[in-house]
TrEMBL record:
Pfam families: Rad51, RAD51D_N. This is DNA repair protein RAD51 homolog 4 isoform X3. It comes from the Eukaryota. One of its GO terms (biological process) is double-strand break repair via homologous recombination. GO terms for cellular component: microtubule organizing center; Rad51B-Rad51C-Rad51D-XRCC2 complex; replication fork. The keyword Amino-acid biosynthesis does not apply. Keywords: Nucleus. It comes from Carlito syrichta. Residues 1-139 form the RecA family profile domain. The gene is RAD51D. The keyword Coiled coil does not apply.
Length: 216
C-alpha cells in the first residue's frame, strides 16, 4: 500500500501531506477513495494532488476474478494503444500469493495450470503492451538451509524478470518502518546489492527526517 509522501506527484509538498493526514488520508488508496473536491475546499489543497486519483483500485478475491480483470485490462490497453490515447503505464498485483496459494497442493491439480495462465497474462501486459508489472509475493524458509525464498515454488521463480527481497529489520534501535532491500534476480544488474530503506518515506535512512536523530 503506497504511503503519501513528498514528491509522489507534482505539488504534493510536506505541508500538503500533513494536511491530508490530518483528514485521515495517509495512503494512495485513501486519497483515491476520498472526496478530493471537498478536501480541497476545506483545506485549500492544490488540485495537483488529483493526479493520484488516476490510480484505479480493483479488489479481487480469487484467481478467476483476477484473470478476468487482467483480460479486460489487456483489451482496454490494446484499444488505447491503437487509438494513440493516454495509456495505462503500470499494474500492481498485491498479492499474487493470496489468490494462488489456495489452489496449490493437495488434490487441486489445476492450481499450477491456473498459476501459469496468470503468469502469461502478466507477461503479455509487460512484453506486448509495454506496461510495468509489479507483483508482491510472500516469502518462506527453505526446509534444509533455513534461508528465505519466494513462495509459490520453483515454477513461479521463473516468472518475474527482476526480483527484490524486502526484509524486516529486527535490530535494537531501528525504526519499525525500516526494511532491508536486496536485489536477488535481474537481467541487467548484479545481484546481491543491498540497501536499507524507510518505507514510511521510501528513502534511505539518511534521507528520512524522522530517522536523522537516531543515526550514530
Amino acid at each position: 500500500m503506497g504511503v503519501l509522501r513528498v514528491g509522489l506527484c507534482p505539488g504534493l509538498t510536506q505541508e500538503m501531506v500533513q494536511l491530508l493526514r490530518s483528514r485521515g488520508i495517509k495512503t494512495v488508496v485513501d486519497l483515491v477513495s476520498a472526496d478530493l473536491e471537498e478536501v480541497a475546499q476545506i483545506r485549500g489543497l492544490s488540485y495537483k494532488a488529483g493526479a493520484l486519483q488516476r490510480i484505479q483500485v480493483v479488489h479481487v478475491f480469487d484467481i478467476f476474478q483476477m484473470l478476468g480483470v487482467l483480460q479486460d485490462l489487456r483489451g482496454t490497453v490494446a484499444q488505447q494503444v491503437s487509438s494513440s490515447s493516454g495509456t495505462l503505464r503500470m499494474v500492481v498485483v498485491d498479492s499474487v500469493t493470496a489468490v494462488v496459494s489456495p489452489l496449490l497442493g493437495g488434490q487441486q491439480r489445476e492450481g499450477l495450470a491456473l498459476m501459469m495462465q496468470l503468469a502469461r497474462e502478466l507477461k503479455t501486459l509487460a512484453r506486448d503492451l509495454g506496461m510495468a508489472v509489479v507483483v508482491t509475493n510472500h516469502i518462506t524458509r527453505d526446509r534444509d538451509s533455513g534461508r528465505l525464498k519466494p513462495a509459490l515454488g520453483r515454477s513461479w521463480s521463473f516468472v518475474p524478470s527482476t526480483r527484490i527481497l524486502l526484509n524486516v529489520i529486527e535490530e535494537t534501535g531501528t525504526s519499525g518502518s525500516q526494511r532491508m532491500v536486496c536485489l536477488t534476480k535481474s537481467p541487467r544488474q548484479p545481484t546481491g546489492v543491498r540497501e536499507m530503506v524507510d518505507i514510511g518515506t521510501w528513502g534511505t535512512p539518511g534521507q528520512s527526517p524522522s530517522l536523522k536523530g537516531d543515526q550514530t
